[in-house]
From TrEMBL:
Transmembrane segments: none annotated. This is Cupin. Gene3D superfamilies: Cupin (2.60.120.650). SMART domains: JmjC. SUPFAM superfamilies: Clavaminate synthase-like.
Amino acid sequence: MAQPGALDAMLRGADQPFVVRGLAADWPLVRAAQMSSAEARRYLLNHAVERPFMVSVAAPESDGRLFYDDTMQMNFRTSRARLPTIFQKMDEGEAMEQSPAIYLASIDVHEHFRGLHDANHVDLGNRDALASIWIGTKTRIAAHNDFPDNLAVCAAGRRRFTVLPPDQFRNLYLGPVDNTPAGRAISMVDFEQPDFAAHPRFQEALCHAQVAELEPGDAIFVPSMWWHHVEGLAPFNVLVNYWWRDTPRYLGQPQDALNHAMMTIRDLPEKDRKVWRDLFDHYVFDADENVTAHIPEHARSVLNPLTPETAGRLRAFLLRTLSR
């Protein structure tokens, strides 16, 4: 278990994944889960707010893999239900030889539970973190990445994380960017049964993969943009995770810029794309004092490092141009 202040020191500047064993061993939720999955569910129900929860359900033949079907539609259906109803289905499923996969993904802890965060949380100092809870039966979630840093705590059951560096995206055979299970492009490779004939470069990705299995109370840090494939290995699994970014939120989401570039630049003639590539390098990737040295300082506006005010001005300008 990390000593007070030790976790903060480990997180500061970390650019590689790491595991902290027993970080949340003293959580009441972890202790309840160690008694039984039923006890963990009772504990969660005692803190749940009376409101619908978003839940995804996949047929038993999915084998817990929440993914695309043969038509590239999702192989699961999503609906809203009260937590007692969802947990009753999980209770019933534990007694069945084959049962549906049931998954509650990225549920906001503060909005859906009362007092759960107070009794079960990691002290992240002055980091402005979003706390989410993930509850499910045995599941396999395809490799994807997230922009924020991520500290994920196994609170019940067991989790297996397979993590890969950001530069391995070409070897993961990413799927669509506008038709995704949860908003991020995912690897089309089945990590459990990879088809190396269809995905030969995945063998190179595996050379760079790191695998960690988490028991209740263990935590893993996944740096921003690292790819991670996540499996819930027990009949009932709970994960609590924290997302934060070291840059201000007013800077927006880089994925939005990538999507817009695909719409506006990718299909231009090659000579035009080269001009825009040079402009992106000048204003974004290689930006230095030469971009603004010839402009009076008071007139540089968004060419200077952004502030909340200038970022808001740029956002408003983009909204006006996108709405034309």
